[in-house]
């Protein structure tokens, strides 16, 4: 049963990852009228924000995919070199590229202060959990490393969760003004993920993953 749930979760995340990659394709036009950028016309002219946006959008799919590859028992035990390389790609891209650019974007997030606080806090927690995962693996504390990686990847998946919760609000016609809805999804997208991460940790998921 647990194996089936793990396979379904992997498939769902993989599908979400593919969708995220597809969402980035229109931004290759580098025009201010594309999708989300329509709401950013007042700040699109700011070079630092515009560069941060494109850096974040194009680096995040790499973080999602390389992060997903870390939770595979076969690569951990049979392909440790592959596990290390993709792990370093995940950590390096996240800590030095995706999260800092996300933090800068968060300073001008739609919805004013409530959402700006949410997204900047998310970026800081994203970096913190990932750095902790790196520290633990360097100390050869592999179970603790696994726990912090789960937390880190839970925050990585907030990009997918945000869109999923936005869809749910629209599908169930929840009576919220657009600004209120965006505040709700901006917090729930990463808070719910962290709660699920702690639940997995409570179930000793990292320990089971690392057992041969």
Please tell me how large the radius of gyration is. Answer: 18 Å
Q: Sketch the major β-sheet.
A: none
Low-confidence stretches: none
Number of strands: 0
C-alpha termini separation: 18 Å
- Helix percentage: over 70%
Keywords:
212 residues, 9 helices, mainly alpha, transmembrane
Structural commentary:
By secondary structure, this protein is mostly helical. It has one domain. 77% of the residues lie in helices and 0% in strands. It is built from 9 helices and no strands. Helix 4 runs antiparallel to helix 5, helix 5 packs antiparallel against helix 6 and helix 7 crosses helix 8. It starts with a helix and ends with a helix.
Short synopsis of the structure:
This protein has helices spanning 2-24, 47-68, 73-77, 80-106, 112-138, 142-156, 158-171, 178-202, 205-210. By secondary structure, the chain is mostly helical. It starts with a helix and ends with a helix.
Give the SSE map.
Layout: H1 2-24, H2 47-68, H3 73-77, H4 80-106, H5 112-138, H6 142-156, H7 158-171, H8 178-202, H9 205-210
Helix pairs in contact: 1-2, 2-4, 4-5, 5-6, 5-8, 6-8, 7-8
């Amino acid at each position: 049963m647990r194996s089936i749930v793990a396979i379904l979760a992997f498939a769902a995340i993989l599908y979400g990852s593919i969708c995220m990659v597809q969402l980035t394709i229109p931004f290759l036009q580098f025009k201010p009228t594309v999708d989300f950028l329509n709401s950013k016309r007042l700040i699109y002219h700011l070079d630092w924000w515009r560069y941060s946006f494109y850096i974040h959008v194009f680096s995040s799919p790499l973080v999602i995919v390389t992060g997903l590859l870390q939770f595979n028992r076969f690569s951990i035990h049979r392909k440790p070199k592959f596990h290390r390389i993709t792990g370093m790609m995940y950590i390096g891209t996240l800590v030095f590229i995706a999260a800092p650019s996300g933090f800068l974007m968060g300073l001008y997030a739609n919805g004013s202060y409530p959402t700006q606080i949410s997204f900047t806090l998310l970026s800081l927690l994203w970096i913190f959990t990932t750095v902790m995962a790196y520290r633990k693996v360097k100390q050869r504390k592999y179970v603790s490393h696994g726990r912090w990686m789960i937390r880190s990847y839970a925050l990585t998946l907030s990009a997918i969760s945000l869109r999923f919760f936005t869809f749910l609000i629209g599908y169930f016609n929840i009576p919220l003004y657009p600004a209120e809805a965006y505040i709700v999804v901006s917090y729930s997208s990463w808070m719910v993920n962290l709660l699920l991460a702690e639940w997995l940790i409570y179930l000793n998921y990292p320990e089971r993953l690392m057992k041969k």
